[in-house]
Write a structure and sequence with these properties.
There is one protein chain. This protein has 378 residues and is mainly β. It has one domain (87-377): YVTN repeat-like/Quinoprotein amine dehydrogenase (Methylamine Dehydrogenase, Chain H, 7 Propeller). The chain has two helices and 30 strands. It has helices at residues 14-25, 31-66, and strands at residues 2-5, 8-11, 87-92, 98-103, 109-114, 119-123, 128-132, 139-144, 150-155, 159-164, 170-175, 181-186, 191-196, 200-205, 210-216, 221-225, 234-239, 244-248, 254-257, 266-271, 277-282, 287-291, 297-301, 316-317, 323-327, 332-337, 343-348, 355-360, 365-369, 373-377. A hairpin with a 5-residue loop joins strand 22 and strand 23.
Length: 378
């Protein structure tokens, strides 16, 4: 413990110094009392060290979960899904024009974007939770990450931005497109895909804010669907040349291009919850249902009064995949049966403004219109 040299005492380590300090401070204490005190201090140090180690593990676990592949479990839907009937809520979502809509995986919130340059986060009942500024031009597309940690907004200012869905903090800018970004979608927990008027598709690493791959897609991209397979190896794009294209996420290969699917530009593509069907919508005022396994068209949905109102209009499936919904230029949301191809019903709001995007949850059907309002039907 110590060395004797030239009549001086030299302490070889920190423990000896501590003992010297304690011998001075506690000189009047017996050896037994001092030993007991040291044992108490040792227990306190051990407990503190244990708590610090547990806190470190929790911090590392939480940081890892931000980009975790583990997904929240969606709400189960009834075996017999009921058609929405009653207009439950109608509230202003944008000061000018609403352009885009997306629902979180757990359906606990949805987000909207529009011409007032902001993205808004709403509760499932229609209460505004957050307002996310930052875009310099109109917001053309919004999406929520699979783990619900992030909100992606794509804008006409050629930038896609990533916000925290919890704090509303702007986290990342994804810059590199040469024209408006019409759509941005999460590929998985850490990657997103954007489609632009510059005729390219880009895959981004959101942890590093870098572009991993740029693909020439030949025509302006209107929409994307990334929910094609569990392994995220394929995604689908919709284009201004009236066609859809299938792409391999591992390279830039175009796997398949439709031929004569629609007579005017595509505005949306949506994969069914079963991952077996694809719904397309077009400015030719029709929607088509394709079998993803054979890529054959099964049904065409249309009505004399149905009109696709915008180049960014989005149609959707019901949560059980039984029905499809699309907003119309005549101020209603039209519903069709995906099993029979038959028209089912139309949902009306208190306004006659065209509905440009719809999203269907287990609780409500949500739609936004060009006058800046969001409507929820039970």
């Amino acid at each position: 413990m110590r060395n004797m040299a030239a009549g001086a005492v030299q302490y070889t380590n920190d423990t000896d110094l501590v003992l010297k300090f304690q011998s001075v401070k506690f000189g009047n204490m017996s050896l037994v009392e001092l030993q007991s005190l040291l044992e108490i201090k040792d227990k306190q140090i051990y407990q503190l060290t244990k708590e610090l180690q547990e806190a470190k593990k929790e911090i590392e676990h939480n940081a890892k979960n931000i980009f975790s592949e583990e997904l929240p479990t969606p709400k189960p839907f009834p075996c017999q899904y009921k058609m929405p009937k009653t207009l439950h809520l109608m509230t202003q979502s944008d000061k000018t024009e609403s352009l885009c809509l997306s629902t979180s995986r757990l359906e606990s919130f949805f987000v909207t974007g529009g011409a007032d340059l902001t993205i808004k986060k709403w509760s499932s009942t229609g209460r505004k939770l957050l307002e996310l500024p930052g875009s310099e031009k109109v917001v053309l597309s919004v999406d929520v990450s699979p783990n619900e940690q992030f909100i992606l907004g794509s804008s006409a200012d050629k930038v896609a931005r990533l916000w925290s869905s919890v704090s509303g903090k702007l986290l990342h800018w994804l810059q590199g497109h040469l024209d408006s970004i019409f759509v941005g979608k999460f590929l998985n927990h850490s990657k997103v895909i954007t489609g632009s008027g510059d005729r390219t598709l880009k895959i981004w690493d959101i942890e590093k804010s870098i572009c991993l791959r740029t693909t020439n897609c030949f025509h302006s991209c209107s929409d994307l669907s990334t929910a094609t397979d569990p392994d995220h190896n394929t995604y689908i794009s919709a284009h201004s040349d009236n066609e859809i294209r299938f792409w391999d996420t591992r390279n830039s290969d175009c796997l398949w291009t439709s031929a004569g699917l629609h007579s005017k530009r595509l505005t949306s593509v949506c994969v069914s919850p079963s991952h077996t069907l694809l719904l397309t919508s077009s400015r030719d005022n029709t929607l088509k249902l394709l079998d993803l396994r054979t890529r054959a068209a099964l049904f065409e949905f249309s009505r004399p009064t149905y009109e696709n109102p915008a180049n960014w209009s989005r149609a959707c499936f019901s949560p059980d995949g039984r029905y499809v919904a699309a907003g119309s230029g005549n101020g209603c949301v039209m519903l069709w049966d995906a099993k029979t191809g038959e028209y089912e019903d139309s949902l009306l709001s208190e306004k006659s403004s065209p509905f440009v995007s719809v999203s269907w949850t287990t609780e409500s059907l949500i739609a936004i219109d060009r006058s800046g309002f969001v409507s929820l039907w039970n």
